[in-house]
């Protein structure tokens, strides 16, 4: 397989001026990541600062309601409230050891921005976050948190004013500041080596979850593993250690938007075609002329017209199945999990929970392990405005 | 020899820096665009770079991005560009180059794209998001149609990477003057001189300097180190404020 590819997908479709920092990053990954100095510090940070291992939680009430055995991997319990922190502490530490002084990030829901701000503060680095102007409004609590921790937040006014445009601006900024700055990419997408690097830091989710599930279930594996897919980082982290287990069904959940035929959505694996954006060949929402289409999801963190290349590959080979959940179904799951289990999920994670709810007939009697990628505090205003 | 190279060398033979203006296709309007091309050609452009508008132009600064997005809103696509160029084939003295991002070209189909370039009199291609590592399949598809993929290099390109690009480069080498996006700069980094000299030692084809150039005075300190100058944002701003391409080209003569 070609370097940086997952089957047909991946690559480094990026301006030449960004190749030197990408090559530098790839070399640092190979030299620094396996080192004792990195591994011992990173493991300690995950334990002491993030609160790992995160719990897996059985949901007795919902299990009874739905007629299946529902388990949650609780990334919402991580410091700063989502899985994103696993990646930012990893990349932040790597960048620090590379001698970089600034962490640059893009963010949609703001969770990655917050997690990068945490990493920068902990590691005594500067932090600069690009965020679409629409998302700055939608996720105001996270903007406040980032600023409180010393990050500079730049509202991006170009294009669709969401995550895709925040990535464009961050890449432009990285072009100029590559000597001092590490681009702390927020998901398992973008040019090589980011999809591999981010998976490396997120695979802790399935490493823990697999072991925890076996311990709690007499050494049995779950029947189904589920995660929501924006760029795909929590999902690839959740899937990684289950991919070699043929008995485990792997399900990724994309956002269908309002769900009407032809509506704006965030489901490139289900509704997109092969193309090239943000440094990777992957599935994209695009016009026949190759212009990128606006995406939509009620969950800002899923609102992206592309997807990480490893998911495109798992989709193409059939090892994982990708389904869609619409905004209303996600809101229903948000309410249901809150009411029945006392857990308020992020709207992104609500898409994964909704899969279990909507497909309970088909999942009858099965054990279903859902990645609860983040907590829902940030989404209260969105949900209030709808109900 | 690729027409881009011969046109640049013709300017060099007259002791001049060859001029390479950039304009997004369909800017400032569908009709006016073709008139601007005629003016640029008449004013002595060696190569004319025509932008293929893309929704997500990460290598471009605000001026080019805004112009490109306006063209997209006006419905400009590759079919429109090729149709217009085919109708005017043979009427330009300058060599023609298409510049853009990979996805629209990929969706058009690489072979169809190459064939339409040939039919429209286009002899060069710049893809801003296609580094050497990924470029093989594009070069292969363009070769039968004699369309050259112009390499972009810059201040952070090592000698080793320059060598990779130089191996099969045709037309000219595009040296990006800044670590950053397209757009006017008040001054250009002094470091350029040293890197241009390196590029000179490796490329046998002409070298063009681009990004951030708005006036011929800026080029004086690079005399002898480069053969052509590319200007985009300055020209776009000039046209957007109601001036003509002919006026823009005057001080460069
Ligand atoms: C809580 C939460 N879950 C999921 C996502 C989706 O991102 P990814 O697919 O990279 O995990 C986000 C993105 O912001 C998020 O904040």
TrEMBL record, chain A:
UniProt-listed PROSITE patterns: TRP_SYNTHASE_BETA
EC number assigned by the record: 4.2.1.20
InterPro entries documented for this protein: Trp_synth_b_CS (IPR006653), Trp_synth_beta (IPR006654), Trp_synth_beta/beta-like (IPR023026), TrpB-like_PALP (IPR001926), TrpB-like_PALP_sf (IPR036052)
Cofactor(s) of this protein: pyridoxal 5'-phosphate
Keywords of the record: Amino-acid biosynthesis, Aromatic amino acid biosynthesis, Lyase, Pyridoxal phosphate, Tryptophan biosynthesis
Pathway field: Amino-acid biosynthesis; L-tryptophan biosynthesis; L-tryptophan from chorismate: step 5/5
One GO CC annotation: cytoplasm
Residues in Tryptophan synthase beta chain-like PALP domain copies: 52-374
Reactions performed catalytically: (1S,2R)-1-C-(indol-3-yl)glycerol 3-phosphate + L-serine = D-glyceraldehyde 3-phosphate + L-tryptophan + H2O
CDD domains xref list: Trp-synth_B
Sequence positions bearing N6-(pyridoxal phosphate)lysine: 84
Taxonomic superkingdom: Bacteria
Broad enzyme group: lyase
Function: The beta subunit is responsible for the synthesis of L-tryptophan from indole and L-serine.
Listed name of the protein: Tryptophan synthase beta chain
Organism (species): Pseudodesulfovibrio alkaliphilus
Origin organism lineage: Bacteria, Pseudomonadati, Thermodesulfobacteriota, Desulfovibrionia, Desulfovibrionales
Gene designation per UniProt: trpB
TrEMBL record, chain B:
Catalytic activity reported: (1S,2R)-1-C-(indol-3-yl)glycerol 3-phosphate + L-serine = D-glyceraldehyde 3-phosphate + L-tryptophan + H2O
Single GO cellular component term: cytosol
Catalytic activity, EC: 4.2.1.20
GO molecular function: tryptophan synthase activity
Active site location: 49, 60
Keywords: Amino-acid biosynthesis, Aromatic amino acid biosynthesis, Lyase, Tryptophan biosynthesis
Domain of life: Bacteria
Pathway per the UniProt entry: Amino-acid biosynthesis; L-tryptophan biosynthesis; L-tryptophan from chorismate: step 5/5
KW Amino-acid biosynthesis (keyword) present: yes
InterPro entries found in the cross-reference section: Aldolase_TIM, RibuloseP-bd_barrel, Trp_synthase_alpha_AS, Trp_synthase_suA
Xref: Pfam families: Trp_syntA
Xref: NCBIfam families: trpA
Family label: Belongs to the TrpA family.
Assembly: Tetramer of two alpha and two beta chains.
PANTHER family assigned to the protein according to its UniProt record, in alphabetical order: TRYPTOPHAN SYNTHASE ALPHA CHAIN, CHLOROPLASTIC, TRYPTOPHAN SYNTHASE, ALPHA CHAIN
Function: The alpha subunit is responsible for the aldol cleavage of indoleglycerol phosphate to indole and glyceraldehyde 3-phosphate.
Protein name as annotated: Tryptophan synthase alpha chain
Organism: Pseudodesulfovibrio alkaliphilus
